[in-house]
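Input record, target 12 of the design panel.
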């Protein structure tokens, strides 16, 4: 792989002009200001106080928004993240900024010990990272960033330089993380799935002995209200899982927690389709990658789809069987353009039904079942609505021709992003801000929807549908 200095080298900034007469220019300016204030010179922190380092899937979403401000900065965001990739292909979920004090965030670099505990897995020596991963949105982000300014991208060799890293990242997930043997990637820690505190994890986490409370200090409570954050019991279990994974040298397949998640795998499939397009852009053929994406889609349907309840569910690899909790993760596969029509219709019905209430009683789709016993409209991922899942659902609805629902969701995202001060997440009923404000992916994804360019994505969707048609049409 290329040296870090080669990968992040960049020419002078190039910015796309924005018409100040546009009626949305004030929101554009405020969102851009959030991203500028969270920019470190090479990447963007999610939040200056609560999250002072670079996060993996955050940076992918941030790049998607940054492409409307500066395609160069969007490319740099992804390039910086990928310089921290491990030798086994994994992209770590945190890349630590050495100038940030150790006590500013927990778990800190001295907990993960990546350069020593991760040596056998090829952890980099020159930068400290975590040892777990996050959802693979990166190839999709890279493709969208390329499309924002193809000339700049080709001139810098952007796709040519990051394609091998993205391909290695997918190989790691497809080979090292197929812990259930059914073709899907498993997460080995709730933090890897991104929806950290979801009730979907309660059953598999119940088997984990929590780390003693005295063995760690929660820096997150310095910046967030305790009633909005995970409980100490849950946090103790998170720490135990991470400790055991670290002490095993970050070897996969040995831990007590292994879950196949529908959103994680749907994003892997979407990024496989994106990698196919990148391969074509680089002069190769994307047929094999499109075919792999279709095999993964079949595995997703075989292993995680519940026809009676009309959505996808997580599978507990260690405990066996589907986890009977409705999380927004089970709607995210709507993003995939080659799902059978009856599946997409069922997902839309479920999203509009009483469990999620899209376009009815909620302002944004909640992260967890409104009727679930564990529902809490403000506690982290146990009910609040998040802007990244709304962006993914908006894209999925538009992909499958649900234009009115997509337009309504887009309007809600833009309204609530601005009125909440670009909050980390919001109460799904009232839209009241929760967590921190001036949150980077909220600002970035609001920018992306503000600069709504459905025509740009039509080519991508149509291209994938052509692949499906060549293979013989819809399944089922």
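The sequence produced for target 12 reads:
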């Amino acid at each position: 792989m290329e040296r870090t200095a080669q990968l992040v080298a960049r020419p002078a900034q190039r910015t796309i002009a924005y018409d100040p007469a546009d009626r949305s220019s004030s929101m554009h300016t405020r969102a851009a200001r959030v991203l500028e204030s969270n920019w470190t010179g090479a990447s963007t922190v999610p939040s200056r106080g609560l999250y002072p380092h670079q996060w993996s899937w955050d940076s992918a979403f941030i790049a998607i928004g940054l492409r409307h401000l500066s395609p160069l900065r969007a490319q740099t965001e992804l390039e910086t993240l990928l310089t921290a990739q491990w030798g086994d292909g994994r992209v770590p979920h945190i890349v630590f900024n050495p100038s940030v004090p150790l006590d500013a965030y927990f778990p800190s670099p001295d907990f993960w010990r990546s350069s020593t505990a991760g040596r056998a897995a090829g952890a980099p020596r020159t930068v400290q990272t975590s040892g777990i991963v996050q959802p693979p949105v990166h190839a999709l982000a890279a493709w969208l960033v390329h499309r924002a300014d193809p000339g700049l991208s080709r001139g810098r060799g952007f796709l040519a330089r990051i394609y091998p890293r993205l391909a290695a990242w997918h190989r790691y997930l497809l080979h090292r993380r197929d812990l259930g043997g059914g073709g899907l990637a498993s997460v080995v820690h709730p933090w890897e799935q991104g929806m950290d505190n979801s009730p979907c994890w309660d059953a598999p986490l119940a088997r984990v002995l929590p780390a003693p409370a005295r063995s760690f200090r929660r820096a997150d409570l310095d910046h967030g209200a305790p009633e909005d954050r995970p409980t100490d019991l849950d946090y103790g279990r998170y720490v135990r899982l991470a400790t055991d994974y670290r002490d095993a040298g970050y070897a996969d397949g040995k831990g007590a927690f292994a879950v196949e998640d529908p959103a994680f795998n749907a994003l892997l499939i979407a990024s496989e389709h994106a990698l196919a397009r990148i391969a074509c852009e680089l002069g190769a053929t994307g047929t094999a990658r499109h075919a792999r994406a279709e095999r993964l889609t079949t595995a997703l349907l075989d292993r995680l789809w519940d026809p009676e309840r009309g959505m996808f569910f997580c599978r507990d690899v260690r405990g066996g069987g589907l986890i009977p909790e409705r999380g927004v993760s089970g709607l995210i596969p709507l993003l995939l353009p080659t799902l059978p029509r009856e599946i997409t219709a069922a997902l839309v019905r479920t999203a509009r039904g009483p469990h999620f209430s899209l376009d009815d009683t909620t302002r944004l789709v909640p992260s967890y079942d409104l009727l679930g016993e564990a529902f809490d409209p403000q506690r982290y991922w146990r009910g609040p609505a998040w802007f990244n899942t709304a962006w993914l659902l908006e894209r999925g609805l538009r992909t499958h021709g649900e234009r009115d629902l997509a337009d309504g969701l887009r309007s809600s995202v833009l309204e609530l992003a601005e009125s909440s001060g670009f909050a980390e997440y919001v109460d799904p009923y009232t839209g009241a801000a929760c967590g921190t404000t001036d949150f980077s992916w909220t600002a970035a994804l609001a920018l992306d929807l503000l600069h709504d360019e459905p025509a740009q994505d039509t080519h991508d969707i149509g291209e994938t549908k052509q692949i499906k048609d060549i293979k013989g049409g819809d399944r089922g």
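The longest strand covers residues 54-55.
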